[in-house]
Amino acid sequence: MRRRIPLRKRLLVRLLIASALIALCSVAATAWLAVATTTSALEEEQGQDLATDSGILTQLSGYAATHPDWSKGGRTVRALAARSGRRIALTTADRTVIADSARPGTPLPPRPAATVDPLHTDTYSEQGAQLSGIDPRAVGPYRLTAAERLQVDALARKRQHCYGAYDITVTVTRTPSGRAALVGTDGQDPLSYVPPECADGRLNTPTATEDKALDALTARTRACLDRQGLTLGSPLYVTFDVTGKDPLDFRPVIKGKARDGSPTEKAVQNCAHSARRAQLDPYVAPSAQLFLGIGDRTTPRFDVSPANKAKVAGAAGLVLVVTVAVTAVVAGRLVRPLRALTEAAQQPPDLHVRVAVTTRDETGILAEAFNDLTERRARLEAQRRAMVSDIAHELRSPLTNIRGWLEVTRDGVVDPDAALLDSLHDEALVLQRVIDDLQDLAAADAGTLRLHREPVRADELLDQVAAVHRVAADTADVTLRTDAGAVLWLDADPVRMRQMLGNLVSNALRHTPPGGTVALAARRGDDGVVLTVADTGTGIAPEDLPHVFERFWRAEKSRSRRTGGSGLGLSIVRHLAVAHGGTAEAASEPGRGAVFTLRLPGAPPPSCDD
To answer: Residue 475 maps to which CATH number?
Structure first.
């Protein structure tokens, strides 16, 4: 029976999968390398450009926050352009050039990159600048005088010393307005815990300059709120924060305020921010459009650098190495069993070499088939040797008897009487029977066994065989009976059929003790006619049952040819059954007899004209 190979174990599928994996890895590696290299280069270029553009905008916004106009901005623009390698141009809203690092007459890019306005820094890059939209470096009237800076510095150092007495480490920093402030080791405001001895409140108290600016801011804010029907409850007060937010944190108080985040609170914050922008406007440069680039063209930045070339070469080499390695491993696993089979097949036939089965694919099945072939060859060789030995034994005994009697008769020791001649005749018949059986088996093996088919009635066939063996059955005190039932027809050779049934009946009579029974029966089977020969003899052991149709096989090895037959009768029965298109089977239970069954194709009854 042909063994079905799982799809995933088939050699072709494995080769296809290996090739597909190699191709997939190659394509994936190439695509990944191209995408990764290009993406990395573009991201790096974009990141560099963004960082450069952000730095340029930060520098220009800082200049605008600390200067009332752009009269000295050209120097700053040219310095930034030289450091960044970018063309930088500043214009008014109507594109009147304020400052430009390019030669006069160079066209501007089609769109501005950003707007430089320290009072509306929506593109400013530092953290917290978006809270109020005002560049924290735009301090205007809040900038401390030199004397006030010295006074605030002294207060900051005093508080720093006070913190140190409690093992709190702080450092002194300075805000854009010149005010000193304290920050913790992590850059945060240390006011989350202030020892009572250090909380004098003097460091955060506004100076005279700041009070003056706050009074002006309060007046502007009150005017804005009055227009909205709101009344400012008290002057604005300011706290100082250096944690990244707006250093000037204004806290206006409104009469009738509901809660933080209410419409009233938002209106106050809007008025405070508007008032602050109006207060700072004279101190900052006017808004300007920022243009970056070279004319109206974009210069290509990406090129295959030596590093990228090395990556491409390295990835290609790696893919090649992996491909060769995978192919070598797969080919080695496929070729190794074939080499073992070749070496085993080249060994001398008498060694019957077998190979180890290590896989379940086509190669493994081939190895199993090779081992089965070796087993069959070894078994056939053993059977051939045994058959030659058995034939020699079967022929030697009668020939020895004939030769012996002839020699003693020639020497005059024994007279050639009728009894001696009958004995020699019996030995010649034994030789003839063995030779005829061997000739029948040789013809069956060669496929030249001739059958003369004709319609045969099964019941008549059984009666004929029973009549021939009736005398032998009576002599052995064994009952021989037939049971045909309905009329069944066979298309068979009647002589060969009698030979088959005769061999079975002879075998049954030899193994049935006196008082036993041998029964011949015929019945209709599923696909033909079934003939059985059953006896009540000693039976056949289970381990011997598979060998009953083998040549020269005897259940009892000590049985002689006279009591056990030649050992060829059952083998002839099987070959004749196969020649008729049927089968021969044996079943037995030790001590309860044996049943031999012939399953043969049936035939329709002959017509009256035949």
So the answer is: 3.30.565.10
